[in-house]
Amino acid sequence: MSLNSSAAYKSVRTLLGSLSKEQNKNQELLTSIAFILRSFTNIDRFLEIIPLVASRLIGVDSCLLVPFHCDGRISIDQLQITPSINTDALIRKIINFKNGQINDFSNNEIQIRVLDQLVQAFVIHPSIFTTSVVSRGKQLGRLYVFNLEAPFSFSDIHCRNLQLIADLTGVAIENHLLLQQTRNHESVDRQMSIGGEIQSQLLPAQCPVVQGIDLAACCRPAFQVGGDYFDFMPTRPELIGKRRQQGRWAFVIGDVMGKGIPAGLLMTMLRGMLRAEVLSGLPPDRILHDLNQLALQDLAQSHRFITLFYSDYDPISRRLRFANAAHNPPLLWRSEEKTVSRLDSLGLLIGLQSDAEYLCGEVTLKPGDVLLYYTDGVTEALGLNRERFNEKRLIAYFQELNAQVSTAKEILDNLFKRLDVFVGDSHHLEDDASMVVLKVHDELRLPSLNNSTA
User: Fold this and answer.
1) Inter-residue contact 235 to 247 (CB < 8 Å)
2) Domain coordinates of the chain in residue numbers?
C-alpha cells in the first residue's frame, strides 16, 4: 500500500469515527428527551431543556421556544432561550409584542409571520430554522434555531432532528394540558360532590310526624347538585312532642330554573328566607308575597326564577291553605269520589316582578285523601321514544296506585318505579325530579252491631 493510500485510509477512518461519535451523541440527546417526556412531572422544567438540547444537537449557539396558551396567546412565563448575546433584548421584544397577547393569536397566520420576522431581525446571519410546535392539529408554539456568531448551514438531517424535537415538545405540552383538564375535572367533581352532600343535608332527612297524616318524599337530582326543593316546617317550632304533631305545619315544594351548582346555591338561599318567613305565621299568599320581595334583587342578578307551591296544614281541622307561584299544581285524590283534581291558585314566579300578587286557596282534606306535590322534572321526563311523561300519565298512575296501595311511601316508590321504567335503564333524568306524598289516615271504622233478636 502506498504512503498516499495509507494516509487516505486513515483520514476515512477518522472521519467515520467522528461521524459515528456524532451520531451516537445525537441519539443519546434524542433518547434523553424521549425518556424525560415519558417521566416528566413539571412542564416548565421540560421546556427549559428543549433549547439547550436543540442547540447542542445541531451545533448552534441559540434556540428559542415560544409556547402558546390554550386560548392561543403567547405564554410569556414559559418563553425559553439558550443564553447568548442579545437574547435578553429578543425576549423583551417578544414580551412587548402586543398582538401576541390577543386570543387565538396562534391561528392567525399573518400575525405568526410577524412574530417570525421579529425573531429574524435579531439574527445577523440569514440562516434560521423555524417550525411550529403542533399536537393533534393544534399549534402550541414556535421553535427557532439559529447561530448568532457565525453563518450556519442546516442540512436535511438537522431539519429532521429539529422537527422531531418540536414534535416531542408538542406531545409534552398536549399531555400537560390534558393532565390539567383532568385535574380541573376532578376538582369540579369534588366540589360538586361536596355541594351535593351539603344540599342533601339541607333537604329533610326524614318526614316529620304530623297527627293524622302519612308523609313520604324523595328528590332525584339530575346532577350531583340540583335546583329542586321541598321542606316540612312547623309554624311554631318551639312546640315539642304531641303539641308539635298537632300544630300547624308548612309543606312546600319548589324548583329553581336551571341545574347544577348555581341552582343549588339559589335553592339554599330560598330555604333560609322561607324558613324565616314561616315563623311570621302569615297566610300562604302573604308568605309568597314577602318572599318575592326579599329574593327579587338576588334572583334578578342571577337571571333565574323560582316556582314555588306553599301550603300550611292544620291537623285538627284538616284544613289546608295554599298559594302558588307558577309551580306545577299538586294533585288531590279524593277517597270518597275516587277522583283526582288539581290544587291551584294564581301567582307569578318568585323573582319575576316586584308587584306580583298571590291568591290564597283552601281545601279541607278528608280521611283517605292523598295529595301529591311534584316538580316538572317528573312530567317533563323523556321516555325512550322521546315522549314526555306528562301530567296526564302521572294522574293516571296516581289514581291507579291510590286504589291499590295503602301508604304514602308505597305510592311514592311506585310512582318513581313507573317513571324509571318510562325513562329506561340506559337513560337518566335530564332535570331534577321530586315528589312528596301526603295521605290522610283512614278513619277507624268499627263493625256495626246487630242488636236484633232472633
Assistant:
1) yes
2) 10-181, 203-440
| 215 close to 441: Cβ distance less than 8 angstroms | no
| Secondary structure class of 352 (helix, strand, coil) | coil
Q: What is the mean pLDDT of the chain?
A: 83
Band (177; pLDDT cuts 50, 70, 90): confident
Q: Return the C-alpha cell found at 13.
A: 477512518
- Do 203-440 and 10-181 fall under one CATH topology? no
Give 32 or 89, the one with higher predicted confidence. 89
Given a contact cutoff of 8 angstroms between Cβ atoms, the answer to whether 33 and 167 are in contact is no
pLDDT in tens, 162-173: 888 888 888 888
Q: How far apart are the C-alpha atoms of 246 and 76, rounded to whole Å?
A: 70
Task: Pull the grid cell for residue 52.
Answer: 439547550
Phi-psi region of 404 (alpha: psi -120 to 50; beta: other; left: phi over 0): alpha
pLDDT tens sequence across 399-429: 999 988 889 999 999 999 999 999 987 777 7
pLDDT at 152 over 70: yes
* Nearest-10 crossing angle of helices 156-202, 43-58: 180
Neighbours of 454 (CB within 10 A): 2
Q: How far apart are alpha carbons 107 and 250 in whole angstroms?
A: 59
d(CA 159, CA 344): 77
Question: What pLDDT, in 10s, does the model give residues 3-44?
Answer: 555 555 455 455 444 445 555 555 665 566 555 555 556 788
Distances (CA, A) of 46 to 17, 32, 224, 350, 452: 32, 11, 38, 55, 103
3-state secondary structure of 452: coil
Fold of 10-181: Beta-Lactamase (3.30.450)
Residue 31: count other Cβ atoms within 10 Å of its Cβ. Answer: 10
Place of cell 500500500: 1
pLDDT band at 218 (very low <50, low <70, confident <90, very high): very high
What is the CATH architecture of 203-440?
4-Layer Sandwich (3.60)
Instruction: Please list, in sequence order, all residues whose beta carbon lies within 8 angstroms of the beta carbon of residue 379, skipping any fewer than 6 positions away.
Output: 328, 388, 389, 390, 391, 394
Which class for 187: exposed (0-12), middle (13-18), buried (19 or more C-beta within 10 A)?
exposed
